[in-house]
Design a protein that fits this description.
Blueprint (H helix, E strand, L loop, with lengths): L6 E5 L9 H7 L4 E5 L7 H8 L5 E3 L5 H9 L7 E3 L3 H5 L8 H10 L9 E6 L2 E6 L2 H10 L4 E6 L15 E10 L5 E9 L18 E5 L1 E4 L16 E3 L5 H12 L3 E6 L2 E3 L7 E2 L2 E2 L3 H5 L5 E4 L2 E4 L9 H5 L5 E3 L4 H17 L6 E6 L2 H12 L7 E6 L7 H9 L4 E6 L8 H16 L7 E5 L3 H9 L19 H14 L26 H4 L2 H13 L5 E2 L9 E2 L7 H7 L8 H7 L3
Parallel strand pairs: 1-2, 1-3, 3-4, 6-7, 6-11, 7-8, 11-12, 20-21, 20-22, 22-23
Antiparallel strand pairs: 5-13, 8-9, 9-10, 14-19, 15-16, 17-18, 24-25
The structure holds iron/sulfur cluster (SF4) (2 copies).
Amino acid sequence: MAERPRKILICSCEDTMPLDGAAVRRVCRGSEVIEGRQFCRAELERFRKAAAGGEPVTVACTQEAPVFSEAAGETEGAGELTFVNIREAAGWSKDAQAAGPKMAALLAAAAEPPPEISYVSLSSEGVTLLYGSDERVIEAAQLLKDHLDLTVLIKQPGEVSPLRVTEYPLVKGAIRSATGHLGAFEVTIDDYAQPAPSSRDGLKFGPARNDVVTRCDLLIDISGGAALFPSADRRDGYLRADPGDPAAVLRAVLKARDLTGSFEKPRYVTYSEDLCAHARSGIVGCRRCLDLCPTGAIAPNGDHVAIDAAVCAGCGQCAAACPTGAASYALPQSDALLRKLRTLLSAYREAGGKQPVVLFHDGEHGAELIEALARYGDGLPANVLPVQLNEITQVGLEAVAGAFAYGASAVRMLIHTKPRHDVVGLRQTIALAEPILAGLGFAGSRVATIETDDPDNLGATLRAIAAMDGAAKPATFTAVGRKREVVRLAVRHARREGGRLHALSCLRAGLPDRRFVGRSGKADAALCGRRLRAMRAVSGNLPREGHQPKAADRFPQRHRRQACDQAGRALRLHPLRQAVRRQELGRARDC
Ligand code: SF4
Ligand code: SF4
């Protein structure tokens, strides 16, 4: 296994868990493995000495990462630092004695380079619209007026006293719609009116008008009405709080006060227009990403789609569902995730581990649950390898197929009982993976979600997974390229390893297994000019390598299964679709 030379510091955390230094040395070849029992306090000098060498240093502790970072900062010539959790993930478990291979695998996987992240900039000058319906909005305004450029919008004003001194504009109106994000909201208001300055014992308003459009950097909503955006808590710059919950209102106010200046957020998804199969000639072929995006960040844009990186919340469902790889997740890219899985699973196996279960989880809910299980419960089973992702919904077919090709015996995805956004894309991925795995000979419950907020339930569910074998000879291929190529590599490998791949690649995946357009006798000759033009349109619509005319504009056009993106779209576009055999139409229907 290729390995950057580095130093690995493994710590027994005051002898609260056993270490298997030999297993770590075996799989992290070329690395210097240093064992200790309290690197963060009594043995901090040993850490400094290791860091001073200039090599990259991996510390098997995440809890005390700030202490190590500070110590490295004070050490001249200190190399790059990474941290790996082997305590809650492995050592603090009733299976601790058997957790050596897992610890070694987690440390080996940490050597994989982190993803390169590009960012999108958002900037806010603090122009704020505070939206409410009663005196509570005035209370919030008092906390904000000295920090932000504030306008208060009151919906159906009830008992609101006139301002003693007009320190900020106060108007009435109801927000009909809002678009945008931090630094660039556009709000359309109905029933908009200015108050009369002579309002005496209650606010009196002038004539109202509709369709008033205003722009702001921040939108604070304590109106108690429906959210103005889908997945509202994922919209940067939109702060919504229940007016009946003073603590929530205060949190929103304090957060708003910090939202002035320039901010960066990751560009979660990269998009290649030339791979997108959205539409051609005005006929829509694919809209999977549009249907799944919980934030409304994706919109049709002619024959393609446009992804607004400033609105995108990074759930990854578009990338997981995209059949062509036009939308691909960047945190990390799917091939980088596959390389990490390969290292993790091969190191686990090399260190003597058996029947690995890959547990995908996120860094909030999932990591907290695993920590709680380790601290207060039985910990993770020794064969469960946790893999932290930015979002659990970023898991696509390529990650599942890759995990099995590299030797996983089962894959589980840990999700909240009330996820922050719909997880329908993840369920579709599982529904797609199940028949493929079954067809490859992986019997039993191989891939599933675990939906729980209870650490004990998580532990019990993981321990109840039946012992199953993975691939007899795990793959070693390096995942490079687009998602479809990675999936194809993984499935091809699993098939070679004794799988029985029938026609399953064309079932749910919608990939027809042979030529899908039947010869229609004299149809070639009967092509009129209109049909010929339509035929050309079809050719132009299909993936370049997937649909190749035998001769220009002639039937039958050959269809290469492996290169197919969208047979369903081809059928919709085909001018002679009556000639498509019913059986073949059935095959491609789900595409
Ligand atoms: S990652 Fe999620 S939020 Fe972002 S564009 Fe894709 S589906 Fe939408
Ligand atoms: S899912 Fe992929 S191919 Fe389909 S419209 Fe979206 S980006 Fe294009």
